[in-house]
Amino acid sequence: MLGAARAASTAALLRPQLLEMAKRAVATSLLRVPPPQELLRPLAVPDRLLLGPGPSNVPPRVLAAGGRQLLGHMHPEVLQVMDEIKAGIQYAFQTHNRLTLALSGTGHCAMEAALLNLLERGDSALVAVNGIWGQRAADIARRLGANVHELLKPPGEYFTLQDIQEGLARHKPSVLFITHGESSTGVLQPLDGLGQLCHRHGCLLLVDAVASLGGAPIFMDQQEIDVLYSGSQKVLNAPPGSAPISFSDRAREKMQKRKTQPLSFYLDMSWLANYWGCDAEPRRYHHTAPINSFFSLREGLAVLAERGLESSWERHGANCSQLCQGLRDLGLELFVKEEKARLPTITTVKVPEGYDWKEITAFLMDKHAIEIAGGLGPTAGKVLRIGLMGCNSTRRNVDRVLHALREALRSCRRSRL
Ligand code: PMP
């Protein structure tokens, strides 16, 4: 601490000198764009409790892993870390799939990778839309030239097997996209029976679990999910930037039978499979892995493995129930009516009548350094979203956010509307 304080005061003393030097350097150099003054100031990162829909706080152990010195991305130690990540994802997804790895990108990267490796121009895709993630998947699939059919449900509701059965029978798609944890609405989609149903119709099942992995049960193999992906930034408590993904043998067969190459080289699963040691070939350079992100992801997965998936599911469920009860006690109304349809990681609550949601989120940020979020896509302006994910899913954080909300409701002026 003392060292940090001394460094900060030395930096403050040096700043005017640095600025002067920079000005002089520009006056005598060919550069017409001077060094930006803001970069000559120290990096500012305040302490905040991130209880929005993600990212969530990164615990010291995971942070420290990301701050380790670099190694070459093909060094055996890094390949070993990649193998450990693979095993961690297989555990988190409950799968034995060989084609399991982490993409160098965020959740959207995994979404694109899944769709662009499965779909070819003219293929028929059925997209279950009950929030923003279905809308985004439909957009991506259309860009790929697929013939996209949307199966619609109002935000706040999930799809029944009957809904899906009707969609499959009508549109005969080769791929069904569905979101397990719909973070824009706070809905948890039941997955049991979906894989079997899809396969009876000759269709592959693609599931987005960015917001639900580690917070609600998923059994990739038993539920016969063909492609499952997630992200690093939520329950895994690693910084955004790496995305677990896994493909079933059925999905691999479909990819092997493609007539055209996937539209992206970066996200081509045949290259990535080789880079991650998922095929029998020697590993070849594909891209330079974000090694430090992988160190963090490895530690995030290690924490999950040490504590156990089942206890993680239980903890998220219990804290979410406490939060829901507390919100009701404050007189607030939950957006998702049915208790079993509530996503244990992200809770949506209606913006109380007469309040401006932006004032509530700003109050929590300014007075308590707590982030919660407003709605997104179809829920924009209608809900507040509170995330309790990974190390942030604790009884203490439930109490902290409820306390802050109670104050916000008292203090935020009623809007003039
Ligand atoms: N799918 C879901 C369900 C999500 O919650 C998110 C992130 N909020 C994404 C996809 C996209 O992930 P990212 O923002 O990491 O690209």
Summarize the structure in words.
The protein has 13 helices and 14 strands. With 417 residues, it is of the alpha/beta class. It folds into 2 domains: 60-306, Type I PLP-dependent aspartate aminotransferase-like (Major domain) (Aspartate Aminotransferase, domain 2), CATH 3.40.640; 308-411, Aspartate Aminotransferase, domain 1 (Alpha-Beta Complex), CATH 3.90.1150. The strands form 4 sheets. The protein has a 7-stranded mixed β-sheet, with helices on both faces. The chain has a 3-stranded antiparallel β-sheet with strand order 11-14-13, covered by helices on one side. α2 runs antiparallel to α10 (291-307), α11 (309-329) packs parallel to α13 (395-411) and α12 (357-368) crosses α13. 4'-deoxy-4'-aminopyridoxal-5'-phosphate (PMP) binds next to α4.
